[in-house]
Design brief:
2 domains; 9 strands; alpha+beta; globular; Lambda Exonuclease, Chain A; 3-stranded antiparallel sheet; 246 residues; 7 helices; single chain
Length: 246
């Protein structure tokens, strides 16, 4: 296999989609406000910078992201019956909670919620890297990412959110990238679930990968992102996305 011209991971495809949807997102967040925090132009500029920073892997502070990472690690530890080497996790069965210290932040999760997730994924392989080549008009692209929970017949991504609405993750790309990569590697797994919690309730979004429908969508999105990368190449300092491993 020749070296790929580009290396794109699943969540960078999501970030690019968010950038493309910046107008829609502005109206969703600020459209009904008489005094919005950002004008639509300012929000587009902000979205552009956030995408460039993500491409360049610029570190950022986010309590909500850390909370999601902590919750995911708790579930993996319960599934694998192990201690964490990434964060401090203490279970308090008398109070029915699991306490986590991560990145100088403290989080408390409901024990029943954690067990609900871990029991659902009993026997799963956790944090499984998957990758495959997809052909585009701009050359070969290596798609890759880490599957949260891999079951014999399904792929799962754990999501945490402050507020959930139906089909919240429909525009995301994990449910295309991961089945595509697995199938390319001989694992015929087409069912994908986003398993979501707002820490009060749980929700499931299910998607079935259909090759004839989904590969063109995935290919076109990769090509649009490549066009964006080439147009803004002078701003990109992390060259891995261009297939360059330094």
């Amino acid at each position: 296999m020749n070296n790929p011209k580009y290396m794109l991971y699943a969540t960078i495809l999501d970030a690019f989609q968010n950038y493309l949807n910046s107008d829609t997102l502005w109206y969703q967040f600020y459209g009904s406000s008489d005094n919005p925090k950002y004008s639509i132009e300012e929000y587009e500029t902000k979205s552009f910078k956030e995408l460039i920073d993500k491409i360049n892997r610029v570190p950022f502070e986010s309590e909500s992201a850390d909370k999601g990472t902590a919750f995911n690690e708790v579930i993996d530890c319960l599934i694998e019956n192990r201690k964490s080497d990434k964060m401090e996790i203490v279970s308090d069965k008398t109070q029915g909670i699991i306490c986590v210290k991560y990145n100088n932040r403290n989080f408390v999760f409901d024990l029943k919620l954690c067990l609900e997730f871990s029991n659902y994924f009993k026997g799963a392989l956790t944090q499984q890297k998957t990758e495959a080549i997809i052909n585009t008009i701009y050359g070969d692209v290596l798609l890759y990412g880490y599957i949260d929970e891999l079951m014999p017949l399904s792929v799962h991504d754990i999501k945490t959110t402050h507020q959930y609405k139906s089909f919240k993750f429909r525009d995301h790309f994990q449910h295309l990238v991961y089945p595509y990569c697995l199938i390319k590697n001989g694992n015929d797994i087409k069912l994908f679930e986003y398993n979501v919690t707002d820490f009060k309730n749980t929700y499931t979004e299910s998607y079935s990968f259909v090759h004839e429908r989904d590969v063109p969508i995935l290919t076109q999105h990769c090509e649009k992102l490549i066009e964006f990368l080439e147009k803004n190449k002078e701003l990109i300092t992390d060259k891995k996305i261009f297939g360059i491993i330094e």
